[in-house]
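__Record contents__

***
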Amino acid sequence: MHTRLTIVLCLLAGIAQVPARAQEVAGLVSATTIGTEETVTYTLEVTGADLQSVANLQPPEADGLSLLSPTPSQQTSISIVNGSVSRSIGFRWRFRPEREGQVQFGAARVEIAGSAYETEAVSITVVPQSQRPQRRPRSVFSPFNLFNDPEPTPPADITDRDIFIDARASAREAFQNEQVTISYDLYFKSGLSPRNSRLADSWDAEGFWREDLEVTDRAVPTMTVLDGTRYNVVTLKRVAVFATRSGDLAVDPLQIATEVIPPAGSPFDRSLYSLAYTPIERASPTISIVSKPLPPDAPPGFAGAVGDYELTAQLSTAAVEIGEPVQLDVTIRGTGNIALLEAPVIEPPGIFEVYDPEVRTAIADEGSVIRGSKVYTWLLVPRSNGLFEIPPVRFIYFDPTRARYVTDEVVLPVVEVTGSAIGSIAVSATASGFPVDDIAPQLRTPNWTATGSAPFHRHAWFYVLIALPILGLAGVVIARRRAVRLATDTRWARNRTAHPLARKHLKQASGLLNAGQPIVFYEYLDRAVMSFVGNRMNLAELGLTRPQLSHELSNAGVDRGVIEELLEFLDACDAARFAAQRPNLEQMDHDLARARRLLSTVAVELEAIIT
């Protein structure tokens, strides 16, 4: 009882301290369904203005309703919404229905501080008096009743007008795979307090790819006026849908179960019904979307991407040695169904070994449009030297805003591959298939001369001359087999170049040691070890993680102690490269010797698997 008095006194004392707020007008009705013998009150509510600034007040024009009195009554009220206090002035007119059915209030007009405002039209329904909704008795508040416990007023039934779900789609017609954003909002009147809201049934959108958008877990209700009634609004779900086929599609209703407190007859009756939560279920309307097929004139290479995108591509380097990988990064960023984008087709020259791309996807679900990027990373390993031109990278998508196909293209630089490679030996042949060099010239008529020397077969050089063609032919056969194997057996070819390439990197590291360049020095130590292991085991060094390296060495039968020492050395190289204090020459010389010893140990361990 004393608490009620304190609340009222505090509200009365705070009227003079209400902060100013932006001027707003709204048209409210006392009921949306009335009987033929009842009256309805229309309230023009002005917020954020003083009574002295209000002028030229005009009641709404009504269709099917007659105005009882042109002079409105006035009421000033104070509301607290989300901690913000505002003052509003209500101007009320009473109307009587002239007929049954749908009737409408037009716009009410008013001037506030010289600016004209008007409300939106409001429709209500007039039914026979016997069918009118049951009314809740109105509690009359009086300061003199504060010390008397009033009779409790039973709660009214909760209708679909008191609390409901509205579904709004950003478009009802879109191209196939074009984004449409759907927002599900819960509307509930003041006095209702939903709690424990949850999905009452599974929600589905057959024929669509779906991406949920971010929604605040503890959203603060906002206030709005809908059809002459004030509601609190909370967003339940926001989702982006992409039609996977054309035609007339439908998104299922969103159904929730919640609990609310029925509105009581008076704010002071709330304590008597505070525990009387009523379980209810509500469902949103079905959303119908027409999915239009894409135009038939799609360029070759189009993979179904729809949206607004930007393509970028770059090579990690344009100058490499044989066997060293080149990294090609292709990035597609923009708005659309990022998750289902397919990788562009790349067609490098045949001398490059192409590994499957690594794919990284980043999607931002903030706002009303799906944004993000997709990065594809290919490793290209050259097996021959020369200058090679990689064809441009192309990405084709359909822009629904402009209703046309767009082709993005990025031109890549020419790649220069250096180093030595043993190619296949080209041998000319006759029509019969014999090598040209094996055909002897035509013999001429000899002139026989008697000599006193010993016969040829008695000289050692005679047998040497006989053996030389056989040895030469054997050498040609061996060289040809070696060349063919180098060209066809990648594992064996890389194994043969492992030691020379490692010695080359160690030699370069030794030169950097003397030049006092520790960062590049440790890069070459790391490269010497990783290229040696990669070539001996036919692994792609670039992108090879420490766990993958440990797993491959373990499968090859390398001793666990050697593997741990190898990983420790590689970690030490990384630490030295990024350390704030540069290592001294003594430490660098120690690490160079350690790298040589480690390569010898690993070579011995891998000897068993060399083919």
